[in-house]
Design a protein that fits this description.
The protein has ten helices and eight strands. It has 294 residues and is mainly alpha-helical. The strands form four sheets. A two-stranded antiparallel sheet has the order 1-2. The protein has a two-stranded antiparallel ribbon with strand order 3-4. The radius of gyration is 24 Å and the shape is flat.
Length: 294
């Protein structure tokens, strides 16, 4: 499929036709119009939206030009290599030309990448690779985590962090495993995160807009609107007045039980603790026992 539109001016007809072709391609392959990953430079395929919102994002923010293989939108995966860290030209455009675009993504918003425990195990396995051949002090994962902590501690912008990664890759010996873009770094680190859900809530904490209230626009208890009110006292439809973050426990249990040592500790009070009729551990309390029963 022609992808030259990704490098075209956003005001051009070529870009307009390209956006529509991309959206049609995605809908045909994913068989949905409401849960599609947005490839704009701010979302970089970490957020799910409907076709209309993605179209707006692609015009307002621009497309992530490093996303050349549309694997999230139905295109078959193609093996690629990053053995060379030099800037390569592709149809007259630098592979790093997207760096000139401002990327303003919430560092905490990793979508649902971290929900698969096997994906986590694969990342840990890949993370055991040395950051470059012969390096014993840092692995790929430990180096990336330290760099990302540095970014967060000093408020480094995503664009600056991307340029730092490129510079690090050029300074280190050939064959190093440092990611060459913020997008690649996010894909690696997000697997370490655990899934969460964002739920719209009544500003007065009456209800969550889920299940039977999923399509409601006003709280059935207090009658207040679901949407945020702007400074002009006009409701911003689609912008929730309050959002609750829910952290499902099951993925966290899966993550904890992946370690044999952690699993032993988690089951100690049930499997190996001595039962002598004395209260010597919180597990002996009626409250703990009631929780176990439930």
């Amino acid at each position: 499929m022609d992808k030259s539109w990704m490098y075209s001016d956003r005001r051009s007809k070529a870009y307009e036709f390209g956006v529509e072709a991309f959206l049609n391609f995605s809908v045909e392959n994913l068989l949905t119009t409401t849960h599609i990953r947005c490839p704009c430079v701010k979302c970089v395929n970490l957020k799910l939206f409907g076709v209309g919102i993605i179209r707006d994002h692609l015009y307002f923010n621009g497309v992530d030009q490093s996303y050349k293989n549309w694997t999230f939108h139905g295109e078959p995966w193609e093996a690629t290599t990053n053995a060379s860290r030099n800037v390569e030209e592709d149809d007259g455009h630098s592979r790093y030309s997207f760096v000139s675009e401002e990327i303003d993504m919430d560092d905490n918003d990793f979508g649902d990448f971290g929900s698969d425990p096997y994906e986590f195990a694969n990342v840990i396995g890949d993370g055991d690779q040395p950051v470059y051949p012969g390096c014993r002090k840092y692995t790929k994962l430990s180096a990336l985590v330290k760099l990302y902590n540095l970014k967060a501690k000093h408020g480094m912008s995503d664009v600056c962090f991307t340029k730092l990664l490129i510079l690090q890759g050029d300074l280190l010996p050939e064959g190093n495993t440092i990611p060459i873009s913020m997008y690649e770094a996010k894909k690696t680190l997000c697997a370490l995160e655990l899934s969460y859900e964002k739920m719209h809530a009544c500003p007065n904490d009456c209800i969550l807009y889920r299940k039977e209230y999923e399509d409601s626009t006003n709280c059935p208890t207090c009658g207040i609107s679901r949407w945020k009110e702007g400074k002009d006292s006009i409701l911003k439809e689609g912008v929730p007045a309050k959002v609750v973050w829910y952290f499902p426990p099951i993925p966290r249990f899966k993550r904890m039980f992946q370690s044999h040592e952690t699993a032993k500790s988690l089951t100690w009070h049930a499997a190996r603790k001595s039962i002598d009729g004395q209260m010597s551990h919180p597990a002996d309390s009626p409250s703990w026992k009631l929780l176990d029963d439930k």
